[in-house]
Amino acid sequence: MGTKKIYPLVYIAIGAVTLSACSAAPMEVPTIQQSSIISTRSHASSVAESPSAEFLLLRLIDLIKQSKSAQDFTPDRVAAVMQRPVAFFVPDRFGYGGKLTSEWSYAFEIRGINSPHPRLDLDFIDTSPNRSAAATDICKVDFDQFVAALEQDGFARTTIFGEHGVVVYDRFDRPGLSIKVSSIGDASVPPGNARHDCVQLVTVQ
């Protein structure tokens, strides 16, 4: 299990950005300028109003596999591979976010695009009243499957432990890219069964 970080600027956009299934341009949102929207017309028919966690993780795997470094995470390229339009929150930060289910939302963000070390974050956010939502809805592509895809692409895995042997996160490295993956246990697994971990936060640099 891992800790996860809060990215306030992205969370402002969650719930405000609603994407149309038939249009590549989002609805009017006060916090995001219309001129900053990156259009992906060739993928417009593929854009769903609410993407699943499975869709987001599979597209992210493809983006990682097609990238030599975080410098490749340009707005046009990210929009094309992720098959969704992106919007700028501030000049060097873009992405999108929204609701997955009644208890889970997501934030997808690339920051520092004008710096030597851009950073990508995909965060699945528990929005239930007690922050106790079952992770089943974000586990169609589970932690083991995500790890297997990274290792097949040449990433070497290192598990980072905290106090009392608790896993903080797993790091995956290959020349040009470093990825941190934090996981959460799927509470729907019956007691006594093997632990089933789900991806909660992915950071790529």
Distance between the termini: 21 Å
H/E element order: HHHEEEEHEEEE
Largest beta sheet: strand ordering: 1-2-3-4-8-7-6-5
Quaternary state reads: single chain
Strand residue percentage: 25-35%
- Structural class of the secondary elements? alpha+beta
Structural topology:
Blueprint: H1 8-13, H2 53-65, H3 75-82, E1 87-90, E2 93-99, E3 104-111, E4 119-126, H4 143-152, E5 156-161, E6 167-174, E7 177-185, E8 197-204
Antiparallel strand pairs: 1-2, 2-3, 3-4, 4-8, 5-6, 6-7, 7-8
What can you tell me about this protein's structure?
By secondary structure, this protein is of the alpha+beta class. It contains four helices and eight strands, in the order αααββββαββββ. The chain has helices at 8-13, 53-65, 75-82, 143-152; strands spanning 87-90, 93-99, 104-111, 119-126, 156-161, 167-174, 177-185, 197-204. Strands 1-2-3-4-8-7-6-5 form an eight-stranded antiparallel β-sheet. It starts with 7 loop residues before the first helix and ends with a strand.
Summarize the entry for a quick read.
By secondary structure, the chain is an alpha+beta fold. It contains four helices and eight strands, in the order αααββββαββββ.
Entry keywords:
205 residues, alpha+beta, 8-stranded antiparallel sheet, globular
